């Protein structure tokens, strides 16, 4: 009997692995010696773009990120999220950093971005770099490099970041509201969001793994807990014991309390997010949605059953793709003097 159970387990793992190979092959996974090598780089971006014009730029950015993370490890998630939200609207052009004006509501004031943090970190880094090399390094590149460095500093993977992005001059709240994936989205909506940016289903499930660090706000999950279908019920896709635990933290009308996305390791970048999702404890509806599609579910199951066997490499690869979305290069856009305002 014990041998039969073992053989059954091995067979199921083999089937899972074969399904995973099919998934990665269908999405064109490329593996290089250094993560990110082998992926297509948009024209105008290059590794070491500032080597001649501002040789200490990347080391200055790294050192300043390290200072901030050393004093507050919870900043890693907001810096990563800034990059994600920036790239999903008008590409990775730093438009999420711009302030609203009397005639325009900017991205940062759109509902999905009202809980963003880390703007002060980016502005402090920009100020330091401007002292070294005025008008050379873009805010968009600072956001991309800060995201990479902050993840690595909380034991996550690193990846190559080609630089040379220029800063955009347009920022509209309406576009952020329409294009940033919602925490209430179902899997088909998520697939549409990612596909619109040239990202695959695999990128969707991999980048969702960013929720392994950071927090969620109670007001985002209140309906899941207390009124999912308008009948005073709880979302049946949420583990009942975990729902009960969340109800002790998040009360109806609570707009301030926060909850760890990945309880127990919310400041450590690991693959435990997939264990959370697999056991129906994903905080957002968009996390739970990953179990409702064969491709995303296979990936979740693989990572949760193998302690994240490929997650670090996959995440790095997908972050390279994310950072290449809709970049401005050459004479496009500008190099802002301050990240919150156009020149």
Automatic annotation (TrEMBL):
Gene3D superfamilies: 1.10.520.10, Peroxidase, domain 2. The keyword Calcium applies. The keyword Nucleotide-binding does not apply. Binds 2 calcium ions per subunit. Binds 1 heme b (iron(II)-protoporphyrin IX) group per subunit. This is Peroxidase. Removal of H(2)O(2), oxidation of toxic reductants, biosynthesis and degradation of lignin, suberization, auxin catabolism, response to environmental stresses such as wounding, pathogen attack and oxidative stress. These functions might be dependent on each isozyme/isoform in each plant tissue. Its EC number is 1.11.1.7. Residues 1-26 form the signal peptide. Belongs to the peroxidase family. Classical plant (class III) peroxidase subfamily. Residues 44-343 form the Plant heme peroxidase family profile domain. Its cofactor is Ca(2+); heme b. It is found in: Secreted. InterPro entries: Haem_peroxidase, Haem_peroxidase_sf, Peroxidase_pln, Peroxidases_AS, Peroxidases_heam-ligand_BS, Secretory_peroxidase. Keywords: Calcium, Disulfide bond, Heme, Hydrogen peroxide, Iron, Metal-binding, Oxidoreductase, Peroxidase, Secreted, Signal. Pfam families: peroxidase (PF00141). It catalyses: 2 a phenolic donor + H2O2 = 2 a phenolic radical donor + 2 H2O. It comes from the Eukaryota.
């Amino acid at each position: 009997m014990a041998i039969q159970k073992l053989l059954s387990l091995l067979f199921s793992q083999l089937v899972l692995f074969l399904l995973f190979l099919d998934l990665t092959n269908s999405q064109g996974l490329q593996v290089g010696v250094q993560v990110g090598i082998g992926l297509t780089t948009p024209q105008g971006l290059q590794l070491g773009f500032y080597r001649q014009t501002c040789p200490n730029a990347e080391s200055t950015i790294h050192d300043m990120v390290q200072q901030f993370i050393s004093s507050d490890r919870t900043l890693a998630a907001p810096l990563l999220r800034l990059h994600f939200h920036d790239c999903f609207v008008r590409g990775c052009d730093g438009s999420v950093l711009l302030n609203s004006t009397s005639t325009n509501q900017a991205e940062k004031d759109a509902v999905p971005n009202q809980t963003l943090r880390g703007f002060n970190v980016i502005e402090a880094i920009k100020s330091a770099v401007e002292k070294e090399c005025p008008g050379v390094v873009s805010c968009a590149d600072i956001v991309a490099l800060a995201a990479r460095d902050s993840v690595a500093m909380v034991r996550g993977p690193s990846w190559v970041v080609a630089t040379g992005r220029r800063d955009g001059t347009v920022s509209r709240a309406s576009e952020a509201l329409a294009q940033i994936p919602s925490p209430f989205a179902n899997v088909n909506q998520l697939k549409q969001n990612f596909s619109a940016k040239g990202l695959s289903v695999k990128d969707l499930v991999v980048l969702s793994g960013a929720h392994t660090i950071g927090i969620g706000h109670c007001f985002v999950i209140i309906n899941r807990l207390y009124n999912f279908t308008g009948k005073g019920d709880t979302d049946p896709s949420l583990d009942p014991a975990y729902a009960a635990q969340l109800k002790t933290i998040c009360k109806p009308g609570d707009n301030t309390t926060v909850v760890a996305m990945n309880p127990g390791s919310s400041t450590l970048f690991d693959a435990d997010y997939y264990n959370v999702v697999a056991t129906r404890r994903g905080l957002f509806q968009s996390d739970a949605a990953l179990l409702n599609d064969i491709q995303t579910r296979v990936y979740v199951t693989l990572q949760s059953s193998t302690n994240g066997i490929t997650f670090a490499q996959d995440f790095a690869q997908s972050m390279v793709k994310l950072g290449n979305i809709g970049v401005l290069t050459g004479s496009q856009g500008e190099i802002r003097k301050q990240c919150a305002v156009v020149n």
